[in-house]
Amino acid sequence: MERREFVASLVAGGCAGMSVDLTLFPLDTIKTRLQSQQGFHKAGGFRGIYAGVPSAAVGSFPNAAAFFVTYECAKSLLGASAAFAAPHAAPVSHMLAASLGEIVACLIRVPTEVVKQRTQASPSSSSYNMLRATLTEEGFRGLYRGYSSTVLREIPFSLVQFPLWEYLKTLWSQRQGHTLHSWQSAVCGAFAGAAAALVTTPLDVAKTRIMLAKAVCRQRPKDGIHQRGRLHLPGSIREDPPHVAMSRASWQTDLARRGRENLCGGIILSPLASARAAGARGAPRARFPEFRLTTLPRVLHSYLSAHGELHCKRLQPYL
Fold first, then answer.
1. CA of 103: how far to CAs of 89, 99, 215, 225, 289, in Å?
2. Residue 54's closest CA among 124, 125, 111, 126?
3. Per-residue confidence of the chain (319 residues) as pLDDT tens digits?
4. Quick one: 228 exposed, middle or buried, by C-beta within 10 A (0-12, 13-18, 19+)?
């Protein structure tokens, strides 16, 4: 990659990422609160819709810049090799480059995401107080809580989004006989982002709940001291088992997330293409005991179990 292309990817990717994160931040807050274990209204509802925006503002530029610089460098290196020189191998090189870009970007994204999402779910607290509380209670490792689940969500998202984006751009440019305009690249990015969001919504719910696990424990100090590493369900949602609540929230948030990713894909990918062309101890436990929510396999297992159970309940009247 030439120096000019490197600077273009750095500046254009960083500016586009920061613009998207700040512009669509209210939608991101709504998505996080819908996915929260405590429920949308208990997490703040529409109150304090910009809670956590300082964390997003600080991390969005370096996060997006790291991703797009890594993506462009990896794509150039893979394209120069003989194994990926053939046109039919281009989607594979795009997938590998996007995956590597997500792994690097998550080193910056996860700490800011943890602080941002916990502040969104606790609008009465500030980003600075949430950062200080996380460091005090969990140490530096607390900022990387959910790193593996974030990578496992972001890689499938990129595997769908970027090859589809590149394919749609190539197909459209071949049809019209010249390179795409910015708005055309934005349309391709919107379709690619919507498709990727549809596929990865359950993984995004799991990531959010893993990151919010400690924050939910702190929501109920009157219930006593919570145990480290365990999530106690708030009393407000004890009417449903955790896996049923998660199944419902997972697909309730799909529409909100797909709308956000539609806009995100169109806004963030268009300028890049243009620049490149240029816990409750005292709560009742009889029915619903405390629920471990610390690893991605446990979350996905509870979701899949609930999905089958809900379908059985719906079909029961007809059997």
1. 22, 6, 25, 35, 36
2. 126
3. 667 777 777 788 788 878 888 888 999 999 999 998 888 888 888 888 998 899 888 888 888 888 888 988 888 888 777 677 777 778 888 888 888 998 999 999 999 999 999 999 988 888 999 999 999 988 888 999 989 989 999 889 988 888 898 889 989 988 888 888 888 888 999 999 999 999 999 999 999 999 988 644 444 444 444 444 444 333 333 334 444 444 444 444 555 555 555 555 555 555 555 555 554 444 444 343 333 444 556 655 665 565 555 555 554 554 4
4. exposed
Helices (H), the chain: 3-23, 25-35, 53-80, 90-121, 127-138, 147-176, 182-218, 242-277, 296-315
The values of phi and psi at residue 231, to 5°, are -105, 125
Q: What does the angle CA 69 – CA 11 – CA 17 come to, to the nearest 5 degrees?
A: 80
Position of tokens 């200080």? 132
**What is the rounded distance in angstroms from the CA atom of residue 169 to the CA atom of residue 84?**
19
CB 76 within 8 A of CB 68: no
Distance in angstroms between the alpha carbons of the first and the last residue of the chain: 63
Q: The pTM is what?
A: 0.65
Task: Tell me how crowded residue 119 is: count the other CB atoms within 10 A of its CB.
Answer: 29
Contact present, 113 and 58 (Cβ < 8 Å) = no
Dihedral angle of Cα 182, 18, 14, 140, to the nearest 10 degrees:
-150
